[in-house]
Amino acid sequence: MYGNDFSPPEDGPGGGLLGEVEAAEAALREAAARARRGGPTPDEDLEAYFADVIDADQKIEPRDWMPEAYRKTLIRQIAQHAHSEIIGMQPEGNWISRAPSLKRKAILLAKVQDEAGHGLYLYAAAETLGVSRDELVELLLNGRQKYSSIFNYPTLTWADVGAIGWLVDGAAIVNQVPLCRCSYGPYARAMIRVCKEESFHQRQGYEILYTLSHGTPAQKAMAQDAIDRWWYPSLAMFGPPDAESPHSAQSMAWKIKRFSNDELRQRFVDMCVQQAEVLGLTLPDPDLRWNDERQSYDYTQPDYDELMQVIKGNGPCNRQRMEHRRRAHDEGAWVREAAAAYAAKRAEKKEKVAA
Amino acid sequence: MTGPFDFALRLGDDALIAAQRLGEWTSRAPEMEEDIALANIALDQLGAARLLLTYAGELEGAGRDEDALAYLRDDREFRNCLLVELPNGDFAITMAKLFFLSAYQLPLYTALAGCADERLAAIGAKARKESAYHLDHSSLWVKRLGDGTEESHRRMQAAVDEVWPYTHELFTADPAAPVDPATLRADFDATVSAVLSEATLIRPAHGWTPGGGRDGVHTEHLSYLLAEMQVLHRAHPGAQW
Amino acid sequence: MRARRGLSHTHVGSLHAPDAELALRNARDLYTRRQEGVSIWVVPASAITASSPDEKDAFFDPAADKVYRHPTFYEVPDGVAHL
After folding, report:
1. A324·B145 Cβ contact <8 A
2. Residue A145 lies in a domain
3. Which of A92, A101, A102, A132 is the best residue to mutate to test the B interface, defined by the most B CB atoms within 10 Å of its own CB?
4. Residue A100, in any domain of the structure
5. Which structural domains are found in chain B, ordered by start?
6. Which CATH architecture has domain C2-73?
7. Phi and psi (nearest 5°) for C26?
8. Does the predicted interface ipTM exceed a cut of 0.95?
9. Contacts of C29 in chain B (CB under 8 A)
């Protein structure tokens, strides 16, 4: 996950995110069912036609006319999202071999596998915009496209797997649920699928932390340490503060995004406070307190200078994550070439038989 | 004399160590789709391992559950075949290992599905469908790598040559076991011959036949694998996870 | 993908594969991790000829006046079952 480009959950934070996904799906069907307009007439202004579709809360589909900037914004956003899923496999994958029980090992394998699947759904959605997955992967590998900075932090203990599930996936879901209502059809549909599948990810993380915090003193300390390290980077996942977020307004107008970074961050904080209490663990913010007037929690902002540094490539694991991805890609080249060569040989044989 | 306990332990250890190795591929596969496929196969193996080890623990009656068996035994107490503990190597080695393993597991689980022990029969019935898929998947890749490019052919043949000796251990006769492994050999040979020939690969001549896994005498690799797998569990004796 | 017996195949998504055999396997692994299907078809994207939205009116509007193709067009007298 990177930042902010989506549209809104209708009801309050914490309360049934999965319900919001289902509501988004229903809204998608409803929009499809409403008497829709056809394509633009020959003399119709295309910009006006596009605006009309967006205004009517209809989905833009792959072969529709769209402004070039809309296409570019979507490609960038969907690709970064896809890259994040793929790179995001690494920090958690780091604990598959050492998972402390066979049940946890199975759950973690399935979860990391889901992330690969989500990356593929998203690359497929991006491809509908006229860019190939190979091109996007190349942009990731040469550093021209980013992935969520959160994955540049290390997973030092087993509790980090829990913290990633609870906080990182939690923040991602707050970001993603509104995306289920994005104006671009393939992205909205991919996000609905992703959100539904991800509903178990956050719960498994929370369950890991709950078990640890109710286990031995060493386990509880491990859980607290993980939360201490992951809390602020998770807050930073929502991107820079609104005042410093230049692209937001246009994305909002296009209904790619429907909430600001700060709104989503606040929603996330409000969700987490009570969940931390149930865990019996402390969020590492001495200034965290309920504000009756705002009906929200006041909290300490994450260190945005640190975020900028991580985005620039200077996080603890940036180099390691990229190196890992490049190595997998490079070492797999001969396998991909073999599969292509085999397919070509078969096709040739078939042609000969037919001739 | 191999009773159901030893037998379940062997099969469970095979599946567990295979799952551990396949899991190492996560985020490293040659293609993203293959990452998902390998994780699926790892999950199948892990699922079978859990059923088998749980049952082994019950048969033993000493209060050991799947985790006690997986995490609190040393390498000398593991009963898996050497084949599964070999390092992953390149993708060709991994496919050779998976191909031979599934060509053995498929007839094994199929026979198990018909055995007198109801629990083992149920596990066999479930696992044989999964093995059929593993065999299908690995066969597809053995063919593609064998009959792909010059480089892939060279690597695949080298992998077959390297892994082949470890297949003999799988079929050591044990007439007292619920399924005598020796009876699976013909099925295995037929599968292997057909796929290798389509893949333009040569089946190595019989020669060196390393073994010992079933008696707890392993390669040097297993101890490292277990050290990594067990480190966290053992660092917190008695803890729940 | 056919989700269950009795339902028709519907499009679930796209993927990459060097050939049809692998495409089918990849589809199984990617799109049925949660038992979403009982049958899968794969079609190379190059084999799909798409209508353009620009042609939508010409392509799809003629069907709009053929309401008699829909069962709701017909009045069913009271008391008639199994129709």
Report:
1. no
2. yes
3. A102
4. yes
5. 4-235 (1.20.1260.10)
6. Roll (3.10)
7. -60, -40
8. yes
9. 33, 36-37, 40
